[in-house]
Task: structure prediction
Amino acid sequence: MRVLLADDDAGIRLVVSLNLQRRGWDVDTAVDGDDALAQATSGVYDAIVLDQLMPGMTGIEVAEHLTRDVPVIIYSAFVDDHVQRRAAELGLPTVGKADIPELLAMLDELRAG
Result:
């Protein structure tokens, strides 16, 4: 199973990537919204995890441009009412950055299918 993890914070990318790899995921990373969109549209992923506040496009903006039917999770320390509402309109779950176990559980659930 392959996941794209987009976050502009190198430390977050490292910690989350290591946790995902330990659970058997192949992980590709993106450093900003533009990189995330380019990789998401050119690669084949079983899930995409997007930070909300990144240089270039936000996680929500990246998700709005995706045309493939791939599960997307917004994973961010910044999830206000507007972000929650827009994510809900797009059918995207949101997870706070402090809740890595919840993110891992969501991805495990996707994998189990």
